[in-house]
Amino acid sequence: MSSLKPTLPKTQRQWQQRQRGLPKDALQLVHDAPVPIPQPGEVLVRISHVAPTPIVWKMMGLMPGFMRRNAVPEIEATGTVVDANGSAFEVGTKVMGMIDENDHFRRGRGVLSEYALFKKGNLSPIPPNLNLTTAAGIMTGGITAYRSLVEAGHIKAGSRVFINGGTTASGIAAIQVAKIYDAGEIVVSCSAASSELVKELGAHEAIDYKASPLTTQLTNDYSSEPFDIVMDCIGSHSLFVASPAFLKPTGIYAAIAIDVPRDSSWLHAAWLFTNLLGDIIWPKWLGGTPRQFVFASTPIEETRMVYAAKWAGEGKLKVLIDSVHNSEQKGVMTAYERAMSGRAKGKILINMEKD
Question: 139 near 96, Cβ under 8 Å?
Answer without folding.
Answer: yes
